[in-house]
């Protein structure tokens, strides 16, 4: 495993961690047995369907030839993994890059995760001005937000290209057999891929759900799968990796209510969003779970930093540290003696270490996760590592990590309201 996990400042002894790990063998057996529902993602990196991977890569090349902009339509687990990967590995507000040449690949935009007309109308303008493809992703095929966005964007696409040509620019990822999206994809002849039956939305990043749009965006998905495979077989699951999962559980038992993910590179903004969804939707049920939140440093040190240092200690912190950022800069003399001549990565690291010291001194448990650098291989490790951690702690808490009954409830209530408008 290339990730470094440091629980030495988590404020819990190895004895307490060991105490919480006593059920780990049973939990790992449950995950790996293949008998539990929705655990298909556990062995997925070891059982890559090469034929399907080839088809995904072929479709990605066609998308790259067809369009300047790919609009990925989906919500929750059907989009956050892709958004996290694009944010981390391709670009963020066209500022960051880690080696994917922007002129060779379509830019990626996201739709179907908001019902804002302001947002969607902007994307209609994109369709009028640019060469665009749509990738609609919905396992159920009937989630309201992506269904609306797809209908609106598809109509504009048909207006521009005509029905037949528009159909060749629509890619669908959905259930193999059921749902209105599957019916439409088959009827209209969209290139389509399946979401495996035994993998739920937030655990589906390494299935066609994430792989097709990521490959179209120029991300090396073979390297990402190799990273996930390396993590799946890593002997670290006997050691550090499990310590993070059990430390989280021990901290919950000790009365902590929130886990705050902190990052110092904005490239991790949507990875943190993906983490919040993964942990929130997996653990938060039956009155249990750690509430996941995220903060971007150093920006949020100048707002939430006050609460962290001196407010109510209901939380612990998990720092996501990228050891070698993709770019660096030397600060000029005019910035003042303290920082002049130093690199921004050195200064960012000093900030991180300073925050950890200050917060630890105030008694706040801090866990640190070191990521050597942001590349596709390490991203694959990160995805698999956090998915497994989440499943382990959910089982330790006694909840099913793979359902979301609370989300279903809001959908039902919204439908009732809609029928009254
Ligand atoms: O993790 C999950 O299962 C959810 O977040 C779903 O991905 C989300 O609700 C979207 O569902 P669907 O893919 O069916 O549109």
Automatic annotation (TrEMBL):
Cellular compartment(s): Cytoplasm
Pathway in which the depicted protein is active: Carbohydrate biosynthesis; gluconeogenesis; Carbohydrate degradation; glycolysis; D-glyceraldehyde 3-phosphate and glycerone phosphate from D-glucose: step 2/4
Pfam family of the protein (one): PGI
Keyword Cytoplasm annotated: yes
Gene Ontology MF terms in the entry: carbohydrate derivative binding; glucose-6-phosphate isomerase activity; monosaccharide binding
Active site: 281, 411
Reactions mediated catalytically: alpha-D-glucose 6-phosphate = beta-D-fructose 6-phosphate
Subcellular location, principal: cytoplasm
Listed GO CC annotations: cytosol
Domain of life: Bacteria
EC number: 5.3.1.9
A single GO BP: gluconeogenesis
Enzyme class: isomerase
Protein purpose: Catalyzes the reversible isomerization of glucose-6-phosphate to fructose-6-phosphate.
PANTHER family, per the entry: GLUCOSE-6-PHOSPHATE ISOMERASE (PTHR11469:SF1)
Protein name: Glucose-6-phosphate isomerase
Protein source organism: Aminipila terrae
């Amino acid at each position: 495993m290339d990730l470094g996990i440091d629980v030495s400042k988590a404020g819990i002894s190895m004895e307490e961690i060991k105490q919480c790990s006593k059920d780990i063998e049973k939990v790992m057996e449950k995950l790996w047995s293949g008998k539990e529902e929705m655990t298909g993602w556990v062995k997925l990196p070891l059982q890559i369907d090469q034929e399907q991977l080839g088809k995904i890569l072929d479709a990605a090349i066609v998308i790259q030839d067809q369009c300047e902009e790919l609009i990925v339509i989906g919500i929750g687990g059907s989009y956050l993994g892709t958004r996290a990967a694009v944010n981390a590995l391709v670009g963020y507000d066209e500022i960051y890059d880690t080696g994917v040449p922007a002129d060779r690949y379509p830019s990626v935009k996201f739709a179907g995760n908001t019902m804002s007309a302001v947002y969607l109308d902007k994307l209609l303008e994109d369709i009028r001005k640019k060469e665009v493809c749509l990738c609609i992703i919905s396992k159920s095929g009937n989630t309201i937000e992506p269904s609306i966005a797809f209908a609106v964007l598809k109509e504009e696409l048909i207006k521009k290209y005509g029905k037949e040509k528009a159909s060749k620019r629509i890619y669908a990822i959905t259930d193999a057999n059921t749902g209105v999206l599957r019916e439409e994809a088959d009827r209209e002849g969209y290139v389509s891929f399946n979401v495996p039956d035994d993998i739920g939305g937030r655990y589906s990043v390494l299935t066609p759900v994430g792989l097709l749009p990521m490959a179209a965006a120029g991300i090396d998905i073979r390297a990402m799968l190799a990273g996930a495979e390396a993590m799946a077989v890593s002997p670290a699951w006997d050691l550090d990796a499990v310590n993070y999962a059990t430390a989280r559980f021990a901290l919950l038992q000790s009365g902590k209510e929130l886990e705050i993910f902190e990052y110092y590179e904005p490239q991790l903004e949507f990875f943190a969003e993906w983490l919040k969804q993964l942990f929130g939707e997996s653990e938060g049920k039956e009155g249990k779970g750690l509430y996941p939140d995220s903060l971007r440093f150093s920006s949020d040190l100048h707002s939430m930093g006050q609460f962290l240092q001196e407010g109510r200690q209901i939380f612990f912190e998990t720092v996501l540290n990228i050891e070698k950022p993709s770019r660096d800069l030397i600060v000029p003399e005019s910035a003042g003696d303290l920082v002049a001549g130093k690199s921004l990565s050195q200064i960012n690291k000093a900030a991180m270490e300073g925050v950890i010291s200050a917060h630890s001194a105030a008694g706040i448990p801090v866990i640190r996760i070191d990521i050597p650098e942001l590349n596709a291989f390490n991203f694959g490790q990160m995805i698999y590592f956090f998915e497994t951690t989440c499943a382990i702690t959910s089982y330790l808490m006694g909840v099913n990590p793979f359902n979301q009954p609370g989300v279903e409830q809001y959908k039902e209530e919204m439908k009732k309201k809609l029928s009254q408008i």
